[in-house]
Amino acid sequence: MKTRYLSIFSLAFLALSLTGCPKKTQLKTDEPVPEDAAKPEEEPSLRGKDYKDVEGIGSIYFELDQTSLRADARETLNKNYQVIKGHSDWEILVEGHADERGTTEYNLGLGQKRAAAVRSYYMSLGMRGGKIATISYGKESPLCNDQNDDCWSKNRRGVTKIKISEKK
User: Fold this and answer.
1) Is 92 in contact with 133 (CB distance < 8 Å)?
2) What is the distance in angstroms between the CA of the first residue and the CA of the last residue of the chain?
3) Per-residue pLDDT tens for 120-149?
Protein backbone atom coordinates (compact mmCIF):
# COMPACT_ATOMS: atom_id res chain seq x y z
CA MET A 1 0.00 0.00 0.00
CA LYS A 2 2.83 2.36 0.93
CA THR A 3 4.60 1.59 -2.34
CA ARG A 4 1.41 2.35 -4.27
CA TYR A 5 1.12 5.84 -2.71
CA LEU A 6 4.82 6.42 -3.32
CA SER A 7 4.35 5.51 -7.01
CA ILE A 8 1.38 7.83 -7.40
CA PHE A 9 3.25 10.65 -5.66
CA SER A 10 6.30 10.08 -7.88
CA LEU A 11 4.18 10.20 -11.05
CA ALA A 12 2.45 13.37 -9.93
CA PHE A 13 5.78 15.01 -9.09
CA LEU A 14 7.22 13.98 -12.47
CA ALA A 15 4.18 15.39 -14.31
CA LEU A 16 4.41 18.70 -12.47
CA SER A 17 8.14 19.02 -13.02
CA LEU A 18 7.82 18.37 -16.77
CA THR A 19 5.13 21.00 -17.28
CA GLY A 20 7.20 23.76 -15.69
CA CYS A 21 6.18 27.35 -15.11
CA PRO A 22 5.21 29.78 -17.82
CA LYS A 23 7.93 32.17 -18.88
CA LYS A 24 7.75 35.64 -17.47
CA THR A 25 7.78 38.48 -19.94
CA GLN A 26 10.64 40.84 -19.34
CA LEU A 27 9.79 44.51 -19.43
CA LYS A 28 12.32 46.47 -21.41
CA THR A 29 12.84 49.61 -19.41
CA ASP A 30 15.42 51.08 -21.79
CA GLU A 31 12.93 51.46 -24.65
CA PRO A 32 11.08 54.82 -24.73
CA VAL A 33 7.29 54.85 -24.78
CA PRO A 34 6.02 56.30 -28.06
CA GLU A 35 4.48 59.74 -27.56
CA ASP A 36 1.37 58.77 -29.50
CA ALA A 37 0.73 55.69 -27.35
CA ALA A 38 -2.82 55.62 -25.98
CA LYS A 39 -2.94 56.40 -22.28
CA PRO A 40 -6.07 55.95 -20.22
CA GLU A 41 -7.37 59.28 -19.02
CA GLU A 42 -7.40 59.47 -15.27
CA GLU A 43 -10.27 61.00 -13.42
CA PRO A 44 -9.81 64.53 -12.10
CA SER A 45 -9.37 65.08 -8.37
CA LEU A 46 -12.48 65.86 -6.35
CA ARG A 47 -10.58 67.56 -3.55
CA GLY A 48 -11.80 71.03 -2.71
CA LYS A 49 -14.38 71.26 -5.46
CA ASP A 50 -18.05 72.09 -5.26
CA TYR A 51 -20.20 70.36 -7.85
CA LYS A 52 -23.76 71.54 -8.32
CA ASP A 53 -26.94 70.59 -10.10
CA VAL A 54 -27.34 72.54 -13.33
CA GLU A 55 -30.59 73.19 -15.16
CA GLY A 56 -30.90 70.96 -18.20
CA ILE A 57 -28.79 68.14 -16.73
CA GLY A 58 -30.94 65.17 -15.76
CA SER A 59 -30.43 62.12 -13.55
CA ILE A 60 -30.80 58.55 -14.76
CA TYR A 61 -32.17 55.45 -13.06
CA PHE A 62 -31.11 51.81 -12.89
CA GLU A 63 -32.86 48.50 -12.45
CA LEU A 64 -32.34 46.53 -9.23
CA ASP A 65 -28.75 45.24 -8.95
CA GLN A 66 -27.94 46.49 -12.46
CA THR A 67 -25.28 48.77 -13.89
CA SER A 68 -26.37 48.69 -17.53
CA LEU A 69 -27.87 51.82 -19.04
CA ARG A 70 -31.51 51.59 -20.08
CA ALA A 71 -32.70 53.24 -23.31
CA ASP A 72 -34.28 56.13 -21.37
CA ALA A 73 -31.01 56.62 -19.46
CA ARG A 74 -28.98 56.82 -22.69
CA GLU A 75 -31.48 59.36 -24.04
CA THR A 76 -31.06 61.51 -20.90
CA LEU A 77 -27.27 61.23 -21.08
CA ASN A 78 -27.33 62.26 -24.75
CA LYS A 79 -29.34 65.36 -23.79
CA ASN A 80 -26.93 66.07 -20.93
CA TYR A 81 -24.01 65.79 -23.34
CA GLN A 82 -25.59 68.32 -25.70
CA VAL A 83 -25.73 70.82 -22.82
CA ILE A 84 -22.26 70.01 -21.48
CA LYS A 85 -20.29 69.97 -24.74
CA GLY A 86 -20.72 73.71 -25.24
CA HIS A 87 -18.99 74.46 -21.92
CA SER A 88 -15.29 73.66 -22.01
CA ASP A 89 -14.85 75.24 -18.58
CA TRP A 90 -17.13 72.68 -16.87
CA GLU A 91 -15.87 69.71 -14.91
CA ILE A 92 -18.24 66.79 -14.48
CA LEU A 93 -18.97 64.63 -11.44
CA VAL A 94 -21.05 61.49 -11.82
CA GLU A 95 -22.54 60.22 -8.57
CA GLY A 96 -23.60 56.59 -8.29
CA HIS A 97 -26.38 55.70 -5.85
CA ALA A 98 -28.15 52.54 -4.70
CA ASP A 99 -31.26 51.73 -2.70
CA GLU A 100 -31.10 50.70 0.96
CA ARG A 101 -31.20 46.96 0.37
CA GLY A 102 -27.85 45.19 0.54
CA THR A 103 -24.75 45.78 2.61
CA THR A 104 -22.91 49.07 2.71
CA GLU A 105 -19.94 47.54 0.90
CA TYR A 106 -22.11 46.01 -1.83
CA ASN A 107 -23.99 49.25 -2.43
CA LEU A 108 -20.82 51.35 -2.53
CA GLY A 109 -19.40 49.01 -5.16
CA LEU A 110 -22.66 49.02 -7.12
CA GLY A 111 -22.82 52.82 -6.99
CA GLN A 112 -19.24 53.06 -8.27
CA LYS A 113 -19.99 50.71 -11.17
CA ARG A 114 -23.06 52.78 -12.04
CA ALA A 115 -21.05 55.99 -12.00
CA ALA A 116 -18.35 54.34 -14.14
CA ALA A 117 -20.99 53.21 -16.66
CA VAL A 118 -22.21 56.80 -17.01
CA ARG A 119 -18.64 58.12 -17.32
CA SER A 120 -17.89 55.54 -19.96
CA TYR A 121 -21.01 56.48 -21.90
CA TYR A 122 -20.13 60.17 -21.82
CA MET A 123 -16.65 59.29 -23.10
CA SER A 124 -18.18 57.25 -25.94
CA LEU A 125 -20.02 60.43 -26.97
CA GLY A 126 -16.74 62.33 -27.17
CA MET A 127 -16.28 63.81 -23.70
CA ARG A 128 -12.70 63.75 -22.37
CA GLY A 129 -12.29 61.34 -19.47
CA GLY A 130 -9.95 63.77 -17.73
CA LYS A 131 -12.91 66.08 -17.11
CA ILE A 132 -15.24 63.44 -15.62
CA ALA A 133 -14.87 62.28 -12.02
CA THR A 134 -16.94 59.58 -10.33
CA ILE A 135 -18.01 58.95 -6.76
CA SER A 136 -20.25 56.40 -5.09
CA TYR A 137 -22.60 57.21 -2.27
CA GLY A 138 -24.06 53.71 -2.20
CA LYS A 139 -27.17 53.82 -0.07
CA GLU A 140 -25.99 56.75 2.05
CA SER A 141 -27.77 59.57 0.19
CA PRO A 142 -31.33 58.48 -0.61
CA LEU A 143 -33.89 60.72 -2.30
CA CYS A 144 -36.72 58.76 -0.71
CA ASN A 145 -36.85 56.98 2.65
CA ASP A 146 -40.04 54.92 2.28
CA GLN A 147 -39.64 51.17 2.09
CA ASN A 148 -41.38 50.26 -1.15
CA ASP A 149 -40.48 49.56 -4.79
CA ASP A 150 -41.39 53.04 -6.04
CA CYS A 151 -39.13 54.69 -3.48
CA TRP A 152 -36.26 52.25 -4.01
CA SER A 153 -36.39 52.84 -7.79
CA LYS A 154 -35.85 56.58 -7.20
CA ASN A 155 -32.75 55.87 -5.13
CA ARG A 156 -31.07 53.66 -7.77
CA ARG A 157 -29.68 56.51 -9.82
CA GLY A 158 -26.78 58.22 -11.52
CA VAL A 159 -26.54 61.97 -10.99
CA THR A 160 -24.45 64.29 -13.16
CA LYS A 161 -23.21 67.41 -11.39
CA ILE A 162 -21.13 70.29 -12.69
CA LYS A 163 -18.29 72.46 -11.42
CA ILE A 164 -17.89 75.61 -13.42
CA SER A 165 -14.23 76.62 -13.44
CA GLU A 166 -13.45 80.22 -12.75
CA LYS A 167 -11.59 81.82 -15.62
CA LYS A 168 -8.37 83.56 -14.68
Assistant:
1) yes
2) 85
3) 999 999 999 999 999 999 999 999 999 999
